[in-house]
Automatic annotation (TrEMBL):
Belongs to the pyridoxal phosphate-binding protein YggS/PROSC family. This is Pyridoxal phosphate homeostasis protein. Pyridoxal 5'-phosphate (PLP)-binding protein, which is involved in PLP homeostasis. NCBIfam families: YggS family pyridoxal phosphate-dependent enzyme (TIGR00044). Residues 24-226 form the Alanine racemase N-terminal domain. The lineage of its organism: Bacteria, Pseudomonadati, Pseudomonadota, Gammaproteobacteria, Alteromonadales. HAMAP family: PLP_homeostasis. It comes from Thalassotalea fonticola. It holds the Pfam family Ala_racemase_N. The modification N6-(pyridoxal phosphate)lysine is found at residue 36.
């Protein structure tokens, strides 16, 4: 049986070690538990062990989990998967964060569909940093226009950038993360609300943290392999 509390403790220690190696405070890196395909019971275990931020990839699964765990009022839901135009309303109505905006059309719909009576939706722009044709994400050249648009949206708050680099060796991964760090620093200089660089998973979190990541996304190492 997966011991989620022990897994979380081990990952937090890994974050501390990586931050020490990078001469950073571990307080500058947060953990997003990727709970896609995992049952409510395991999410509850992670919550009981102190985890509060959870990431989901599929819209209907996200909505179902948000509703079933609505009694946990301090849980924070992040949508990190591809966004279909016909699903933006469900996203706008149910989560606190979206990490995967890569088109103006998507940002416009989310802004229009977010209830103005609740806090604005926190937004990270997904960057296709490796230029893969098969992968979602805006190009580096498209980020400036996207960021400016979102910064002027009443119901969205621009928080930062997210990326999933192409699989490769440590050096190519580091190069991609350094590009992200440069882009993030430029965006942060321009927009005071920008504070989140969402990059790095269990297999490359050390490199990501060394390159300035402020949020790592971990699934299997917390919840175990997918069924």
């Amino acid at each position: 049986m997966t011991n989620i509390a022990d897994n979380l403790k081990a990952i937090h220690q890994d974050i501390i070690n990586a931050c020490n190696n990078a001469n950073r405070s571990s307080a500058t890196v947060s953990l997003l538990a990727v709970s896609k395909t995992k049952p409510i019971s395991l999410i509850q275990q992670a919550y009981d062990a102190g985890q509060r931020h959870f990431g989901e990839n599929y819209v209907q699964e996200t909505v179902d989990k948000v509703q079933q765990l609505a009694h946990l009022t301090d849980i924070t839901w992040h949508f990190i998967g591809p966004i279909q135009s016909n699903k933006t309303r469900l996203i706008a109505e149910n989560v606190a964060w979206v990490h995967s905006i890569d088109r103006l059309k998507t940002a416009k719909r989310l802004n229009e569909q977010r209830d103005s009576n609740i806090i604005p939706l926190n937004v990270c722009l997904q960057v296709n940093i490796s230029g893969e044709e098969s992968k979602s994400g805006a190009t580096i050249d498209e980020i400036a226009e996207l960021a400016e648009f979102i910064n002027n949206c009443a119901n969205l708050t621009l928080r930062g950038l997210m990326a999933i680099p192409a699989k490769g060796n440590d050096e190519t991964t580091r190069q991609s993360f350094r590009k992200m760090q440069t882009l993030f620093n430029q965006l942060q200089h321009q927009y005071p609300s920008v504070d989140t660089l969402s990059m790095g998973m269990s297999n490359d979190m050390n490199i990501a943290i060394d390159c300035g990541s402020s949020m790592i996304r971990v699934g299997t190492a917390i919840f175990g392999a997918r069924d």
